[in-house]
Amino acid sequence: MSRPLYQLKAEFFKTLGHPARIRVLELLSQREHAVAEMLPEVGIEAANLSQQLAVLRRAGLVTSRKEGSNVYYSLTSPQVAELLAVARSILTGVLAGQIELLEDLRTAVPGAATEVRAD
């Protein structure tokens, strides 16, 4: 029996649920990268990067090719880059709304303290 689509979607989004994986996908959205190129950009140990790349590979989001001693990764589909762009757009809208709300709160009570203190 096949799994419901909503379950597959949830697993897909779990795959995206790690900051290092998102950073890798952002880098690969620009162009193909060698593992050595990604290490300083992602900011994790080589073994951890390898694990994260394996997760992305198993999920079918990236593909790899070997050239000499270098392993190069690229996205399997340009739609992955589009998904990241949509996520950025959504977050920009959400954050803009939060900034507006904060400004409204600051101006709602003239003379009120701009800083909340925990006593």
Automatic annotation (TrEMBL):
SUPFAM superfamilies: Winged helix' DNA-binding domain
InterPro entries from the UniProt entry: ArsR-like_HTH, HTH_ArsR_DNA-bd_dom, Metal_resp_trans_reg, WH-like_DNA-bd_sf, WH_DNA-bd_sf
GO MF, any single term: DNA-binding transcription factor activity
Pfam families xrefs: HTH_5 (PF01022)
Keywords, alphabetical: DNA-binding, Transcription, Transcription regulation
Keyword Kinase appears in the UniProt entry: no
Limits of the HTH arsR-type domain: 1-95
Protein name: ArsR family transcriptional regulator
Organism of this sequence: Kutzneria kofuensis
